[in-house]
Write a structure and sequence with these properties.
By secondary structure, the chain is of the alpha/beta class. The protein has a single domain, classed as DHBP synthase (Alpha-Beta Complex). It is built from 7 helices and 10 strands. The protein has helices spanning about 10-25, 45-55, 70, 80-90, 105-110, 125-130, 155-160, and strands at about 1-5, 30, 35-40, 65, 95-100, 115-120, 135-140, 165-170, 180-185, 190-195. Strands 1-8-2-3-7-4-6-5-9-10 form a 10-stranded mixed β-sheet, sandwiched between helices. Helix 1 crosses helix 6. The longest helix is centred in the N-terminal third of the chain and has 12 residues, at about 10-25. The termini are far apart. About 40% of the residues are buried.
């Protein structure tokens, strides 16, 4: 299913189609403030397995996309220093590595102790998360056959993945640079990967 949403004012009727797919355990591709990404509900174990297979690798880091710091704090342990870093840099194109909380089931964590937290500056992504009522498991859409590592054109993404996902949320072109990954688990912030976000 192809769903068109506009970042300035996502149509509630179209948004409901996306939410329905997610609530049934399906997987979607949706725009963020960096690259397009796969997503499913954090509780959708089969969806997580499908996305991991589509991404072509075993996800060593669990990454979830949240609507706010307060929602993220339900799934990750955030102290005062970490909160200040998040406050300065979110919403924005960052993935912050934090210690996972007990709110994430052991089946989802799969022996991981940390979680990557995304709070994107994207009206569409925010609307999807808020409508579903919980974070999404997420990972970037990549095109292994392209010189450009990250696929930016929603039409090309649909051509490649229309038979592999349950819905594509089509919007404007995405970025071709991924998020900046910042490890906050051990004192001072450590940039693991420099991406589109400039840490403040």
């Amino acid at each position: 299913m192809l769903v068109r949403l506009y970042d300035k004012n996502p149509n509630p009727r179209e948004l409901a189609k996306v939410t329905d797919v997610l609530n049934k355990g399906g997987i979607i591709i949706y725009p963020t403030d960096s690259v397009y990404a796969f997503g499913c509900k954090l509780t959708a174990i089969a969806g997580i397995e499908r996305i991991t297979k589509l991404a072509g690798k075993d996800e060593s880091m669990l990454t979830i996309i949240c609507s706010s710091i307060s929602q993220a704090a339900e799934y990750a342990r955030i102290d005062n220093a970490q909160f200040k870093v998040l406050k300065r840099n979110t919403p924005g194109p960052f993935t912050f590595i934090l210690n996972a909380s007990s709110s994430i089931s052991d089946r989802v964590l799969a022996k991981r102790k940390t979680v990557g937290i995304r709070i994107p500056d994207s009206t569409i992504a925010q609307a999807i998360i808020e409508d579903v009522g919980m974070p999404l498991f997420t990972t970037s859409v990549k095109d292994p056959d392209s010189i450009v590592e990250y696929t930016t054109d929603p039409d090309l993404i649909w051509e490649r993945y229309s038979h592999k996902v349950d819905a594509l949320v089509s919007a404007d072109y995405g970025q071709d640079i991924p998020t900046t990954i910042v490890d906050l688990t051990d004192g001072e912030p450590e940039i693991v990967r420099q991406g589109i976000g400039e840490l403040r």
